[in-house]
Amino acid sequence: MEQQKTELDIEQRIEQLKKITRQDGAEKYAEAQFELGRIYYEYKKDWQKAKNIF
Q1: 39 and 5 in contact (C-beta within 8 Å)?
Q2: Is 4 left (phi over 0), alpha (psi -120 to 50) or beta?
Q3: pLDDT at 23
Q4: In whole angstroms, what is the distance from residue 2 CA to residue 47 CA?
Q5: Which residues of the chain are modeled with pLDDT < 70?
Q6: What is the predicted pLDDT for the residue at 3?
Q7: pLDDT of residue 42
Q8: ∠ CA(7), CA(30), CA(4), 5° rounding?
Q9: What is the C-alpha separation between 6 and 8, in angstroms, rounded?
Q10: How many CB atoms are closer than 10 A to CB 21?
């Protein structure tokens, strides 16, 4: 059974992902951006931020 993420967990993950830059490598940066978009879309229901990331 998948554990439901708490708001604090989500906010912490967003902050971690925002720290990843292009200097960390193209693939790692792309994965971070994709995950940020997924979080904003799936958990935060912030369609505009998700759209801007994708």
Answers
A1: no
A2: beta
A3: 97
A4: 24
A5: 1-5, 44, 46-54
A6: 54
A7: 78
A8: 25
A9: 5
A10: 10
